[in-house]
Amino acid sequence: MNLDLRDYSVRTDLAVESKEMAETVYGGPVPGLNEQTEEQDGIRITRLDITNEAAARRVGKMIGHYITLEVPALRGQDTELQERVAAAFAREFDHFLSKIHIGNKAKVLIVGLGNWNVTPDALGPLVVENVLVTRHFFELTPDRVAPGYRDVSAVAPGVLGITGIESSEIVQGIVDRTKPDLIIAIDALASRSLERVNTTIQIADIGIHPGSGIGNKRRGITREILGVPCIAIGVPTVCYASTIVNNAFDLMKTHFSQEIGSAAGQQGQTRQIMGLLSELSENERLGLVKEVLEPLGHDLIVTPKEIDEFIEDIANVIASGLNIALHEAVNPDNVAAYTH
């Protein structure tokens, strides 16, 4: 079978979701994709390594390393849980830096992508507001910088519609001038699962394309383009309406099967209720939903109504985690003191 998931229109930026879809299509694990999963204190951590082009084509993601933290309870605004997630993120990010050979003296530029005027797209700028920046101290008073801090700068370049300039072009100018050793780009993503919206953090070493979460890929912030290693941090903040409708069919199918109870006429009765939809594959059903919605202009981008609170919380978690991971002097037990 020479199927390529990139031909499908399931909208997701998460490697774990792409992996799940690939395993469904191919009926089992994808060769060339290494996975390690662990769960602790309500935090599920998945580490994926896509090692060759064949696996990349099947999964629909680039060769590279991907780490995903899933915390379903993060929506509960539990401060203690948020602190645990920030600490777990910091540990994973620190290991990630080691894996791609970034030392503790490397100069870092943090880029907060997105539109600060649009709440679901404001993740990057909000993280930039709360990270500990130190480059000005290294430039102006290097002899007074305490041990345990590294050179960190940050910028929120805005979006093309506001500035008239591609974010990548702005970042290129900054890179040429300040010569960082690493770029960390933070952006909002899209998920195929409502459960993962605002509860999932993805780290990847493949860089990022601004606007990819809404299917608007442009000039990227990647090592190939900027000449500097680029780590992408993303959180899904939106779903497509077609994806939600498609998921609703799955939930209804499961509900009817449970209500019918007996395995013997379960399939027939479920088919009687849902018709041919019960027999379509996920991609076939999604194609049908999109075919119905898109001519009407109804394939909306949807975000939870509590997005204002969620986006602030998840931005603080990421900023706190970055402060711990990037600066050895930052005490993880008192990380709030290092955010604005």
Describe this structure in words.
With 340 residues, the chain is α/β, with parallel strands linked by helices. The chain has two domains: 5-238 and 304-338, HybD-like (Rossmann fold); 243-296. It is 40% helix and 17% strand. Strand 1 and strand 2 form a beta hairpin. The protein starts with 14 loop residues before the first helix and ends in a 14-residue tail after the last helix.
- Shape call: globular
Count of all domains = 2
Q: Based on DSSP secondary structure assignment, what is the total number of beta strands?
A: 9
> What is the radius of gyration?
21 Å
List the secondary-structure elements in sequence, H or E: HEEHEHEHHEHHEEHEHHHEH
Supply the helix-strand structural class. Answer: alpha/beta
Q: What is the CA–CA distance across the termini?
A: 53 Å
Major beta sheet summary: 9 strands, mixed
Low-confidence runs of at least 5 consecutive residues? 1-9
Counted by DSSP, the helix tally is 12
- Helix content estimate: 25-40%
Beta-strand content estimate: 15-25%
CATH superfamily of the largest domain: HybD-like
CATH topology of the largest domain: the name is: Rossmann fold
CATH first level of the largest domain? Alpha Beta
Q: What is the CATH-assigned architecture of the largest domain?
A: 3-Layer(aba) Sandwich
Whole-number mean pLDDT: 84
